[in-house]
Amino acid sequence: MQEYDRPSDPRLLPRKSREDLGRSARSSRPLEDHAALGPGERDPIAILEHQALSRVAGLVGLRYARMATSPFAFYRGAAAIMAGDLRELPDSGVQTQLCGDAHLSNVGFYASPERALVIDLNDFDETAPGPFEWDVKRMAASFEIAARARGFDDRDRSAIVERVGRAYAAAMDTAVRTPALELFTARLDIDTVMADIGSELPEKASERVEESVTKTYRRDSRQAADKLAVRDDDGVLRFKSDPPLLTPLRELAEREGMSFETALARLHDVLEQYRATLPPERRRLLERYRMVDAAMKVVGVGSVGTRAWVVLLQGDAKRDVLVLQAKEAQRSVIEPPDGSSAYAHQGQRVVRGQRIMQSLGDILLGWTTGEGFDGRMRDLYLRQFRDWKGSAEPERMEPATMRMYAQYCGIVLARAHARGGDPATISGYLGGGKTFAHALVGFAAAYADRTEADHAALLSAIASGRLEAATR
């Protein structure tokens, strides 16, 4: 009987063969080599200046001001700088879907479709395929930089970073032996986490976590509307004016010589295109709401200067409000600047990457294209603005708390990579994880040094007048 000839696609090989592929990749990129960092002969300020060319000119100074506050704030806004640094290094050759901006503040809480609070990656602006270790290295370096900001000693910092690598490797090994359906639906919910940390963290740390979780449950569209909007004389909700942080559509339209009704109609067309990217049952949900206002809102650190909108929708009941966020999606910094993008539409890239990497995602996640006041068409993606979204507070963590958080971040990242790539190949490459974790400690320390130097370069550029920083 003739044996069935398997296709050459490595994903269709038996698990052991795929693990062997991972092990063989070590010959060209040994695990110990991941501690190395290239010479870094580049101008970080020039990279920021290049990014500024495609951003709202009036907001670029605010971005610089936010990045200038600390090395960690700089790091959060420097995904493009680090992507260039990582591209200069030999890589493992083991690919997966990357978050592209995997740092500790981009792991947080959000509501699952069945209204459970889960912990997962929650920012995918830079998602794209790439070598798995790029995400792990960015995550590890974020912990080193955050631990330095807290004044932790060398031993504590090394233990925290090593925990990221060991947790990642262990979770990837588990993923290899997990049935595919279970892997793609596995979630890390807050109840499980609270049960785990209750006996391991200091009492005050546990109380802070509980306090943060309680606040997160209150972060929804109604809370956003209460904070960002007021009712006009006709009882209709309208966004407040607080430029440049929050600039209502009415003001933007007036500035551009356009009527509010025309601007609102144009935005309505954008939302109709967005609805078409949702499943039919989600479109039915949106039909219960009517759009009443929109505003441009500054968010985050790395995103400052890109076009980001909040859209206010009203249901039948007075308290039935929905706030959506529409964010401009530019080309991922992970993708080679001289190559083609995996997607023609960058909003679709973000949505597809998020759906691949998250087990449970926003039920209203979709993409669209919108025409700006300058007449240019831009790719956008939309999601709920606040749906129990929250993040960790590294500036308040003790060493034990940060070690525990590093553990969960390693698990979350490994599960996302296992969904976006082949866990057997990644696990085969990593082996037990000890050597890789040690290498991460060296890399994270070296990259933290580089980030501190880059941050100092930013401060110098602002002081010399090369860059202009503005607090508002």
TrEMBL record:
Region (Disordered): 1-39
InterPro entries given in the database record: DUF2252 (IPR018721)
Record field: compositional bias (Basic and acidic residues): 16-39
Full protein name: DUF2252 domain-containing protein
Lineage, top ranks: Bacteria, Bacillati, Actinomycetota, Actinomycetes, Micrococcales
